[in-house]
Amino acid sequence: KGKGKGKGKGKDGKRQRGMNKNKDRAVNADAMKMVRAGQLCSRMAYLNGCCQQDAEGREKCKGSHDLEAFFAGKPAAIEEPCPVLKSLGVCPAGLNCRYQGHIRDQKNVDREGVVLTPESPWAAKVQGMGHPVGETNVFDYEMVGKLRKKLFDFSRSIEVSKAWQRYCSGASDQPLGAIVETERKTLDFRGKSVLAPLTTVGNLPFRRLCVKLGCDVTVGEMALSGSILEGAPSELSLLRRHESEKCFGIQLAGGDVENMARVAQFVDEQVDCDFVDINCGCPLDELHKRGAGSRLMARTKAMEGIVRCMSTVLKSKPLTLKMRTADHEDLKKYPEFGGRYAHKLLPQLEQWGVSAITLHGRTARQRYTKLADWNYVNECSKGRTDTSIPFVACGDVLSWEEADEHLADHGVDAIMVGRGALMKPWLFTEMKEKRHWDISANERFDMIRDFTNYGLEHWGADARGVETTRRFLLEWLSFTCRYVPIGLLEQMPPKINWRPRPYIGRSDLETKLGSTSANDWVEITEMLLGKVPEGFSFVPKHKSNAYEAPKDEKQGEEMQDVQG
Predict the structure, then answer these.
(1) What pLDDT digit, counting tens, does each position of 158-175 carry?
(2) Measured distance CA(249)–CA(241) in Å, rounded
(3) What distances in angstroms separate CA 279 from CA 103, 361, 537, one per listed residue?
(4) Residues with catalytic annotation?
(5) Closest by alpha carbon to 340, among 349, 351, 332, 348?
(6) Is the CB of residue 290 less than 8 Å from the CB of residue 264?
(7) Whole-angstrom distance, CA of residue 360 vs CA of residue 372
(8) CA nearest 510: which of 498, 524, 497?
(9) Quick one: pLDDT band at residue 183, thresholds 50, 70, 90?
(10) How far is the C-alpha of 370 from the C-alpha of 510, rounded, in Å?
């Protein structure tokens, strides 16, 4: 794969972005379908019995209940005690679990060896793999059905949208007509560390790890407003929150005023979060086609409508917005700052109703090809009219000195970290304790183990959950391999744009953790998740051009943006 002529290039011979599509994972998806087909009914696997019957007493569950066939075809267990059993006292994956320690005489047992039944107290305490312990925003079939069948009552948001339409048509001289604007909710981000919304790699297990390492504020992965309103389970799952996330926000993307107002009402009434963030920074063309992401910055009227309507609909949650310095530079209209215009939008956003603003110090067209411009961030800060609204900024932070410098010199109230957290999530510890951590390979591996355990609790310890955890772990390893131990550096502090050559670590494990070969990343996952299935393949979704790719992988792909 990747050896064909012109692989990774367009017709003009130039490298293209975003070449890594879902088709690259088709083999793994087919393998997972076969795995699911060979698993037991999840309820029977957990509670050793399935009681789902119709009115005539016949089983209405479509899952497999054939224990003999299941155990005859089940692969050998991973030679490790089940991490979920150790954490919770019971494993909801039950007989489907890939680990050892709770299957006796073809029965699922708890930590004490007691056989589980549908009447067991565990059935109420730990409901099953679909309801992970400690997580909120898990929506039942009834709520999903209401969204899919368009039965959810959106009358409140529709009224706000109509008021905005009257203003745009000239029928009213007030942006929201007779709608009473709610008082702006307050947010306290000052001096706090914030984890950026990271597509794919900013999943719930990774956020749990960052919180454990000192992160104060977390933001979920970007969710599409249209998909949420359609009741798409994959999109709704992006809204999940773990109880360890003490200050948690969700990020929404969309370019339609009415849809964004509707999803704001749904979040306000049904979602457990501390704030709602509008994505105005994603540079991907797929979002731009919908007028969303960074393209919204160039659609000022639509941006105003979305902010005003959402801030009015949100009764209990503050509204925030994250944007770049510009979508594309407009030198004719804004010649003074190289065509960037975020400094013009900041005072307007404050008036329209946001409770906090985050600025990524690059344009969407730049992506990650140049360093973030913190001097321009400072210029934007000088133009603020309401300093009570927190101003957060991000871009290239990889050390606590850089974070402190930006807080002191560039007019920001808090620092958001994206790629720096992927490379070294213990950056939050360094920022909090103001020290460099010469972390050992064993300490790093313990963090990988923590992520793995969190992933098994979140996605499940069955074959599907193990491989899902493996995939997301591999995505993270494709970033953290770029970290170079500070004990090996000749110059401090390290910079995110440094491109060090391959090195020999202070131990074999440290060398492997610094490898840019996907084969080594897979071997690391096998230490915790067992051998990969036959035919397994992996291509990082966010491929970096920081290092020379292995010969058996695709060449010349650039990193897709992970920050929304």
Answers:
(1) 999 999 999 999 888 888
(2) 9
(3) 46, 15, 32
(4) 282
(5) 332
(6) no
(7) 7
(8) 524
(9) low
(10) 29
